[in-house]
Amino acid sequence: MSDIQPMLIDTATKIMKDICTKDLISNAEEGEFPQELWEALKETGMTSIGVSEESGGVGGDIKDAMSLLKVAGKFTAPIPLAETLLANWILGVARLPLKNSPLTLIPALKKDRITFKKVEDGWVVSGKAQYIPWARDVQDMVVFGKTSDGQQVVTTLSTTDCQINRGQNLAGEPRDEVHVPENLIENDRVAIVQNLTYEDICNRGALTRIALMAGALENALELTLTYANERTQFGRPIGKFQAVKQQLAVLTGEVMASGIAADSAVAAYENSGQNEEIAMAKIQVGEATKAVTNIAHQVHGAMGFTDEHPLHYSTRRLWSWQDEYGTDSEWADLLGDKILEEKSDVWSMFTESPRQLT
Amino acid sequence: MLKELELPIVDLPKETESLREDVRSFLSAELQNGSFETRCDSWLSGFSADFSRKLGERGWLGMTWPKKYGGHERTAFERFVVTEELLAAGAPVAAHWFADRQTGPLLLNYGTAYQRQTFLPKITRGELFFAIGLSEPNSGSDLASISTRAKKSGGQWVINGSKIWSSGAHHAHYIVVLLRTSSQGEKKHEGLSQMIVDLSASGVTVRPIYLMTGEHHFNEVIFEDVEISEDMIVGEVGNGWKQSMAELAYERSGPERFLSTYPLLSELINLLSETSSSDHAKNKIGKLASRLWTLRCMSLGVAGMLDKGESPDIAASLVKDLGTQFEKDVIDVARELIPSRPSMHAETKYETLLAEAILHAPGFTLRGGTTEILRSIITKGVGYNE
Ligand SMILES: Cc1cc2nc3c(=O)[nH]c(=O)nc-3n(C[C@H](O)[C@H](O)[C@H](O)COP(=O)(O)OP(=O)(O)OC[C@H]3O[C@@H](n4cnc5c(N)ncnc54)[C@H](O)[C@@H]3O)c2cc1C
């Protein structure tokens, strides 16, 4: 843990708890960008946390970035914080100037390809990408793509140069389609990167979803415990019934397991730069999502199923995030394949230094 | 996160790496020379006094205890590594298990100098085995309702009553018995004490209760006017409930709570890797690996807290609840992925391990506190006020 972490979590919690009201979240889902929230985080430097100072960030490590996202997930902060942190990290790696405004990154899906072509006075970039978070709300997008001879290239594009078709995920978060028409970009805004692949981005992307989900799971737990204490049926709080208690305990177990899986994945990734633990943590939070969303909604009764009650802000996000940057099944396939192909016994996988999944 | 649910991330210290290697080479040598066969649930069913003695010789029993009692003053994490390697290999550790896990720490916390000197060095040498005498025919989940009692008579205590489900009592030398030393007061938890009883003493009868596999692990232990001297009382008279509960965090959170069927999982992976396996199989294996890894992180986190003297009751209960569900999931996945004819006398290792796992599984979610009881502890702990 870096020195700034406890303070960071405190500050972020305070800001988000105050600002992320039910109204704000629901307005955001209606399309109103919560500028006030963004400004508050920007002022404290949280939008470039995890990017070193020499690359233009505010420093801190990936653990700091992920603990911040846990808080964002817990309070349902309806802003592209994960995307901005990812995008700024890519800019840092590419040694391009960071941005202080909200960012997103392209592509989000593996199948989408953005191509770069070197021309005399710069680069021509073009392509189409789907499911781009928050594209409509940002001015700039960080684009990762390839040239025909396989070089990996990063640039930033202004959204005004692209066509954006709106889309959204289950939680009403923007997931837009972006057409990048042939754009000419000056040389100094483009960087060729040697050691940054789409897989690297996907690994980090998965980590952001793990952190956000761990936070959202915590919120579902807290809401459910409160509700079970307050809601009375048959003359006593429903949480007094054995059957309900059993369910609450299962929910609690999954949330705790997800919390430590998230922290452990970040720690392992930081130590080794490899992704087996990311796979395992992504699977864990995905599995937890099933149990936790089922139980939380069941315990809340019909109330939790309504728009009025805040539970769905967390559960709809869990249902969305679980499928982003690799579904838990895709990660499980990859991990299982590794184990079976290498005849590695799982035990040595855990107890010896990790290896990269490809 | 709710405070009760926060667990530290524990990175095993570097020193544990060579220890792990030592344990592995020891185990593979033992497997080669046929001193044991890999089994599921070996911490209950793998009884071998010889094997326990060999572990004692290597300094792998009583690892964290003070040297003056024969211990090795090693860290909780070193013990964790040895324990998990033994379990993953399905090694026969049942003989010393309870003494090493529970009785030793109990005596170190509450025992007299005499008791420590008498029992601990022999335990660390793998020569002395203990059984746990908590449950009774009419008291399982409601443990405080026990009725075995000890009455003072002259300088002695005289015990009457019976204990049940006492694992390994037919092999063990002693049993630590929770009993009533004064009649039940306002609170059921009051008036309970712990005593060490020699299983060969007169008035003690150990009656076998066979498992559905036909194996003998359980016993009923009957006490008829068994005389106990004052120096076999553990801790304070009347403090038995608190002392027994303190043992439980150790009992519930260790790697034995998610590794009982690991030998089956390992053999399943071996077999699947020999053929080209389906995507479905890969997916299932990937998911089990994720869960096992998560459980191990949790269990290590609890070990870290115990090492610092904290008592993570809720976290320990959660490790056991999730861990024992996982142990059963391994069986379901194994049955699903490889059609087989499991039997305790099967020709293949896989089918034998599967049979052991299936037939032992009902006990996983009962022993050490049932799932239902654990879940009550968990909800109480996270803020549901009774
Ligand atoms: C393999 C194995 C080894 C064991 N080894 C030992 C040992 O060495 N020493 C020892 O002392 N004991 C041992 N036990 C006993 C074990 O601790 C008990 O089985 C356990 O505490 C449950 O008690 P019981 O079997 O009497 O079930 P009961 O308490 O009768 O429970 C029956 C069912 O009712 C449920 N139930 C009971 N009360 C409640 C409640 N309040 N709320 C919700 N559900 C409830 C239980 O969860 C369970 O499902 C062992 C058990 C097993 C399976």
From TrEMBL, chain A:
Residues 5-79 form the Acyl-CoA dehydrogenase/oxidase N-terminal domain. GO terms for molecular function: acyl-CoA dehydrogenase activity; flavin adenine dinucleotide binding. Keywords: FAD, Flavoprotein, Oxidoreductase. Signal peptide: none annotated. The keyword Oxidoreductase applies. SUPFAM superfamilies: Acyl-CoA dehydrogenase C-terminal domain-like, Acyl-CoA dehydrogenase NM domain-like. Its cofactor is FAD. InterPro entries: AcylCo_DH-like_C, AcylCo_DH/oxidase_C, AcylCoA_DH/ox_N, AcylCoA_DH/ox_N_sf, AcylCoA_DH/oxidase_NM_dom_sf. It holds the Pfam family Acyl-CoA_dh_1. This is Acyl-CoA/acyl-ACP dehydrogenase. Belongs to the acyl-CoA dehydrogenase family. Residues 205-316 form the Acyl-CoA dehydrogenase/oxidase C-terminal domain. Gene3D superfamilies: Acyl-CoA dehydrogenase/oxidase, N-terminal domain (1.10.540.10), Butyryl-CoA Dehydrogenase, subunit A, domain 3 (1.20.140.10).
